[in-house]
Amino acid sequence: MSVAEKSQKKSGGLGETFSVIIQALLLALIIRTLLFQPFSIPSGSMRPTLLEGDYLFVTKWAYGYSRYSLPFGPDLFSGRIWSSEPKRGDVVVFKFPPDPSVDYIKRVVGLPGDKIQVKDGQLFINDVGVPRVKTGQIDNPDVTEENRPIDVYRETLPNGVSYDTLDINSDSIGDNTREFVVPAGHYFMMGDNRDNSSDSRFAVGFVPAENLVGRANLIFFSIAGKASPLEIWKWPSLMRAGRLFHFVH
């Protein structure tokens, strides 16, 4: 084989490799934009449903697509296309209305037109109290970050969706609120850790439909102790094996 032939073969091999890399990046971008996007849980506002160190997939098509479905949220169009309304009880990733560069994750409790209020720790939707039954206590620092048992209440929304909430304090600032009327095209979000959640009762306010990123679907990895999943040597002691491939409800 001549020097020219060797050079041509080498050049062709590099070109093919570059082409494969570009195709893989484009495929990953399409999947992330249209299908699934990974997120990590940075805070304890959704305990006990989601814990710090949970890594989950969010389904991007669940509610259609908005500018925030695209990387960096370019202002290419307004509203949503192929939109579908979230169901009451969905756990949703959305852009923080005052600062869309920040991602939040909460549970949808109020739909457009709903009246929402919290009285003595109980959620009221359209003047009807949401059933709230104490099911026990959690005494696990990995779940509560408290050095004492925490009360757990099972809440059941009007559409039958049930989930656990934590009650750290019996008289916290969010246990009694004014009545909120959810505007058209907006949603009312709350964290399951009711006494430790910045949500629609406070700075988050009503969340525009445009700000929805997707529905939390599946926990694919979980590690305690605020460790990185790349710290493989910590997996034997810190990985929460029981949470792997756990569907979010």
UniProtKB/TrEMBL annotation:
The top EC class, named as a word, is hydrolase
Q: Name one GO molecular function term.
A: signal peptidase activity
Name the source's superkingdom.
Bacteria
Keywords from the UniProt entry = Hydrolase, Membrane, Protease, Transmembrane, Transmembrane helix
Q: Does the keyword Cytoplasm apply?
A: no
Intracellular or extracellular location(s) = Membrane
- Assigned EC number: 3.4.21.89
Give a yes or no for keyword Membrane in this entry.
Answer: yes
- The record lists the membrane-crossing segments as 20-39
Segments forming domain Peptidase S26 = 16-221
InterPro entries noted in UniProt: LexA/Signal_pep-like_sf, Pept_S26A_signal_pept_1, Pept_S26A_signal_pept_1_CS, Pept_S26A_signal_pept_1_Lys-AS, Peptidase_S26
Family listed: Belongs to the peptidase S26 family.
Query: NCBIfam families of this UniProt entry?
Result: sigpep_I_bact
Protein name in UniProt: Signal peptidase I
Q: What is the lineage of its organism?
A: Bacteria, Pseudomonadati, Pseudomonadota, Alphaproteobacteria, Hyphomicrobiales
